[in-house]
Design goal:
Helix content: over 70%
Number of strands: 0
Strand content: under 5%
Shape: globular
Order of helices and strands: HHHHHHHHHHHHHHH
Oligomer: single chain
Structural class: mainly alpha
Number of domains: 1
């Protein structure tokens, strides 16, 4: 068991990055609004996106280079577009996940929420990454994901004891606003498509620490993290369905407020004894996302800069400082614009998802990929069908949005 646990790493980082606002907020809200009725949507979108996330560690271990290096092979322009998109959204994404984490902290400590709490959370994550770098992140994420899984499952078991007779009947949205929610829910589950790029870089870092790591090990690690991501998504739907569905509770649209509100609703219905368990589950969920995104964005920006301009730009710690300072500036000076920033980031994530999917499939089936490690024909067929689904899904989102 110890050897198996040692092989895990980037897959759990993937889980940590993916299990955040999409799970804590969106999955719980899906349960609150539809009961268990949208479990089909959760499973479907995880199956659709699976190949393209899996191609990240597959490509990295087979070729010894990240997906970013592969994108450069597709043309310098592809890398430039990615650079601009990531630069334009990484501050907003980091601020959004950090503010939700701060909202949970204030609820657990029983103190008033303020921008400075978010700043302190950002600085804490910065300090951890500055000192520990990838090796510490790899080890700590194993503890965080185990803690998250145990506390969430305990909460689900208790919720089932409280309300064992909830119907598992699956439903389709009827009203326009229900369709808007469904699209947003599936669009963000299990996470934005560019996490595949982060994963490819983490896989290479893992290879440096453990040179014996094989593609088989990397795919086992990824599959473990992906299954955890899916199961915890179902768990948060269950919590929303059992605790909040048909309760008449008015839920805030603000992520940070919702997170704090969520803990309060759970504990008021389930008893104060469960406050620590619910609180720890929520905090572990968001802290894992906050720290992994704060590691990933500087990592990809440093590597992209290196590919575009040479070794001069390969300074991950500089980007870590830039992202942390930029996030703090948003909290202190631009809080009022947060909603607009998040909306822009969301739109870009939807629109670019099919592009990442196409690029990832092209790379793992291209001439640079060793034949022995190319995906099987059945996986290629599923990938092409999934791309068609993502294009149609994104088109539907754009039509409804505009």
């Amino acid at each position: 068991m110890r050897q198996v646990f040692k092989k895990l790493g980037p897959g759990l980082l993937f889980a940590g990055a993916a299990i955040g606002v999409s799970h804590l907020v969106q999955s719980t809200r899906a349960g609150a609004n539809f009961g268990f009725g949208l479990v089909w949507a959760l499973v479907l979108i995880n199956l659709v996106k699976y190949p393209f996330f899996q191609f990240g560690p597959r490509y990295a271990l087979a070729t010894g280079e990240s997906l970013l290096d592969g994108y450069k092979r597709l043309g310098r322009g592809v890398l430039v577009v990615y650079y601009v998109l990531n630069l334009g959204t990484m501050f907003t994404i980091q601020a959004a996940v950090t503010s939700v984490t701060a909202g949970i902290v204030t609820r657990l400590l029983g103190i008033s929420s303020s921008a400075w709490i978010s700043v302190l959370v950002a600085l804490l994550c910065f300090a951890v990454l500055w000192r520990g770098k990838y090796g510490w992140l790899d080890k700590s994420m194993k503890v965080i994901v185990v803690l998250l899984s145990i506390s969430t499952v305990l909460a689900v078991v208790f919720a089932f004891i409280q309300k064992p007779d909830i119907s598992w009947a699956q439903v389709l949205p009827v009203k326009a606003d229900e369709w808007v929610f469904l699209i947003a829910f599936m669009g963000w589950m299990p996470g934005p498509m560019d996490i595949s790029i982060w994963h490819s870089l983490w896989a290479l870092e893992k290879k440096k620490l453990q040179p014996e790591t094989t593609i088989k090990n990397a795919l086992f690690d990824f599959n473990t993290g992906y299954v955890v991501t899916l199961l915890l998504g179902v768990c948060f739907i269950v919590l929303g369905a059992t605790v909040l569905h048909q309760s008449g509770t008015s839920l805030s649209a603000n992520g940070a407020t919702f997170a704090g509100q969520l803990i309060g609703v759970y504990t008021s219905l389930m008893g104060s004894f469960w406050f620590p368990i619910i609180g720890i589950a929520a905090l572990a969920t968001m802290f894992s996302t906050t720290i992994t995104t704060l590691d990933a964005s500087p990592r990809v920006m440093a590597h992209t800069t290196k590919l575009l301009h040479g070794k001069y730009g390969n300074n991950q710690q500089s980007w870590l400082v830039i992202l942390t300072l930029g996030t703090c500036v948003i909290f202190v000076a631009l809080t009022a614009e947060m909603g607009l920033f998040v909306k822009i980031a969301t739109i870009l994530s939807f629109i670019t998802a099919p592009l990442y999917a196409i690029a990832n499939l092209y790379l793992v089936t291209g001439k640079h990929m060793p034949t022995a490690h190319k995906p099987k024909m059945w996986l290629r067929v599923i990938s092409m069908l999934s791309i068609a689904f993502l294009i149609g899904f994104t088109g539907l989102y754009v039509v409804i949005l505009f």
